[in-house]
Specification:
Rossmann fold; alpha/beta; two-stranded antiparallel sheet; 9 helices; 10 strands
Amino acid sequence: MPADESLSRREFLGRTVKAGACLAAAGAIAYATHDPAGPGLAVAEPQAAALPDFSIPGLGKKMCIAHGADRAGSLQLALQALGGIEAFVRKGDRVLLKVNAAFASPPMLSATTHPDLVAELTRLCLKAGAASVAVTDNPINDPASCFALTGIGQSARSAGAGLILPEERFFKPMTVKGAQLIRNWPVLRVPLAGVTKLIGIAPVKDHHRSGASMVMKNWYGLLGGRRNIFHQDIQTIIAELAGMVKPSLVILDGTTTMITNGPTGGSLADLKETRTLIIGTDQVAVDAFGATLLGKTAADLPFIAKAEALGAGTADYRSLSPIEVSA
């Protein structure tokens, strides 16, 4: 290879990383100062009913840990180990993928759901006969910018999924039974109307407040209003979200883990190649294993025990006898 060609490639990579870091830095500023889309507290409106239970009757608690560098390949192997996508999605299902698109950050920084997973899961759902697949989130930064810069929007559309950006009218006030925090609070309800299967997809990240951001923290993107007030009791809000949402399946992407400076990151130095993808029907168990990719245990993350106490799942992921596969 000529020396000048090698140099130009190094320059290109360097500029790409710098550009990504600038975008992430902008996201970090917005994270601290910007209220996400959605209405404030609604006092006069009638309360919405509890969210539907999207868990699959008779399927039980299942979990698979796939090892490999290729996200799409790991997802395929993990699903096959648990009976195939057909165990979770059937003909006529209307599927909603709840992604983490919180920041206007490029995929290489691992601050958001990777577009390759969105594309592959959409393809598999449609192949299984799903009537429709849609993707949504209520990002911290500008939604259109987030879905564009993360690559999630283009990936979803190219694979055949619809993209639902949050609008104020999509939020409805809701109180979770027994909750301390989610009371008369705007929740992103409209995209869930008519949905028969709900799948959460999130990256494994360090989080400077909660200790980690994984699949249970991902449901934070269903909240509207001035949700940053919940940072004062972030362990409880994550647990209450897990109690509020009963998904069909969750997917935790630890192919590349953000081990420091989360949840925004901004540098490749924040990342570690952990080459692991976890899927399961028990979101608490999946997060409990995910903690190990950050060098932590479930006991280090209080929201896991809190969610278990609310009946959202078990912190003892080993009790599920997870299947391990490798690419």
